[in-house]
Amino acid sequence: MSEQPGRPAHPVEQGRDPAGPPPGPLGRPPGQQPVERTGRRALWLGVAALVTSLFFYPLGLVLGVASLVIGIRARRRARAARAVAPGAVPGIVLGSVGLAFAALSVAFTAYLWPELSGYQDCLGAANTGTDKTACKHEYYPKIEKKLHAPAGSMNKYGDYF
Predict the structure, then answer these.
(1) CB 83: neighbour CB atoms within 10 A?
(2) Is the CB of residue 88 less than 8 Å from the CB of residue 99?
(3) Where do the H-state alpha helices sit in the chain?
(4) What is the DSSP string of 98-133?
(5) At CA 123, angle to CA 119 and CA 126, rounded to 5?
(6) Angle between helices 88-111 and 113-125 (to 10 degrees)
(7) In whole angstroms, what is the distance from residue 116 CA to residue 143 CA?
(8) What is the pLDDT of residues 6-31, one digit of tens each?
(9) Inter-residue contact 36 to 81 (CB < 8 Å)
(10) pTM for the full predicted model
């Protein structure tokens, strides 16, 4: 009911679609986020994807894909609304780089899986420092051969495995 006498106002006359929900704050339908915030979210996800792909690559894969999806959606929404999505393009770029690093890490690990798995098993069974050194002398040459690296190069970078 209307407080003023006369006929009640029709929703279409008030500028609303009777089938849709009433507009939220700033005239946006509820549930829709501003494009600016979505672009910044893509940027932060891209940075997180890049950082985590260097240390924990499974999470880097997930965050890289999320950054790409959110960044592309933000760009499309911005184009449709004729607005800007700050951070969307850098988020897409950083997410792509993080995704590429993570994918290379997965490929590298899959390629060296037999050697790395054997080396970790050997280290797990080692009780002394001499046993650990024996594991290095057994598996480092296998890894060097598979990577076509010069002999002795794993001694320099072996602590990263």
Answers:
(1) 14
(2) no
(3) 35-55, 57-81, 88-111, 113-125, 129-147, 153-157
(4) HHHHHHHHHHHHHHTHHHHHHHHHHHHH--SHHHHH
(5) 140
(6) 70
(7) 8
(8) 555 555 555 555 555 555 455 555 54
(9) no
(10) 0.67
C-alpha 25/C-alpha 93 separation (Å) is 32
Residue 138 has, within 13 A of its CA and on its CB side, a CA count of 16
DSSP symbol at 34? P
List the one residue out of 128, 131, 155 whose CA is nearest residue 143: 155
Amino acid code (one letter) for 12: V
Q: Under 8 Å CB-to-CB from 30, ≥6 apart: which residues?
A: 21, 23, 24
Count other Cβ atoms within 10 Å, centred on residue 56. Answer: 13
